[in-house]
Protein: PEGA domain-containing protein
Organism: Candidatus Ghiorseimicrobium undicola
Amino acid sequence: MEVARKILFSIFVLVYAVLCPFIILYSFGYIYQPEKKDISQTGLIYLSSFPSGASVYLEKSRFKNKTPATISELKPGQYQLGLRLKSYRPWSHQVTIEPGKASVFKNVPLLPVKFNEITLLPGGRYTSLAMVRGTDYFVVQEGSRLKEFYIYDRREKEIKPLVGAKAEYSDFAVNSIFTENKSELLIVYGGPLWNKKYLLFNLADINTPPSDITGLFKAYPYALRWSADSTKDVFAVYEGFINRFDIKNYSIYPKYFDGIKGFGLSNRWLYLLGADNVIIKSTPDKKQEIILFEDEHLGRDLFKWSRFYEIKEIYRDALVFWGDRGDLIVSLPPYRIFDKNVSGMEYNESKNRVVFWTKNNIWVADFNMLNTEYALFNDRLQISSAYRQGSSISQCLWAYNGAHILFKDKNDVYLLALNSDGRHHKEHIVSVKDNTDVFYAEDENSLYYLDQGANLTKIQLFPKEKAVPLAEESQ
């Protein structure tokens, strides 16, 4: 009997000696892989979705818990992760599990199988749509005469004509419209060939007739720029110089800046690229002027393709220069991004990113690494390809605080969900009227557009109470 007890005790000691290390290792996230005869550390996946309650699939197996969920004790390697929810499109993503690390997918946005399209302006007669950025106003066009232009207020959900049908300028032929971000001023250019005019509207007081400011213009400008904070100063950009207008006192300062081939406006500063490739920032009254860059050889090499550059300040004098021939330059390495064919760019302040595109490709420039106080021609910019399969991309818009990109390719609008591993997700949203623009309202997560029947329409991609749905992987 005593011998049996000793044998039994020895067996327990042996089992303990063998299993205890495995139990301890397991508690710290390690497992033994017999096929490899190796001990490796496990990883885990955490994911939540919007809406929540989606079924979770790992490879071909359905996980028992629904989102939000954690899948632990995963061997290192690649897995196909999926989400399924009734009435929503399936979502899948290939994830790489690394030892001792977590892959986190937070608020994965699940798109409905069919969006609820809300017709705001029926009738099927609208030909163009333009948003006054930073405001609640859209300019909706029905024809080419001023009486056929309307202002739609998305907050009040009402539409008003720019002028009445019998107003002084009702038959005024519109050639172009100038707007500025966050400004309620609008300048319309048009009229007959022998009597062209510039009319100034205040969208906050649309019932007041426009002001004729034609006398301030000696020629048609390349661009008109003004600050939303200013009620009087307008800068007219011409080839080689810039005129300053005081629209309140109806006065002009000709060639206020001369020898100029680039211009940008940011808050209280004007950014100027001289014909000699010197970069200056100045206050509007010219009382403060600071030279930012004057490298003769580098400047001549960088700014040689275009006659004029639009300048955008990103962060503490970190600048983007977009030329009229499609070249794109940044004020830090690698400096020249493209020599030609860039169709447009959009900046997202919350993520400190710029999206820029050609007709076939979309790229993202990430300025988050700029932590120095002085970033002009300093740190190296991070640029990544986001999409390479376009055929005729004409627009890119940031969505969900910079986590997604809405883009228009021909007449189709897509949502591109950006992931840190470069495996981005593309989903078709809607088809729109030929040759029209679309606009995204961040505060309500809604897309505005003219549908194929020429009606002003809105799609709410997600309920507005969920302000920042995003899918991101962090390890």
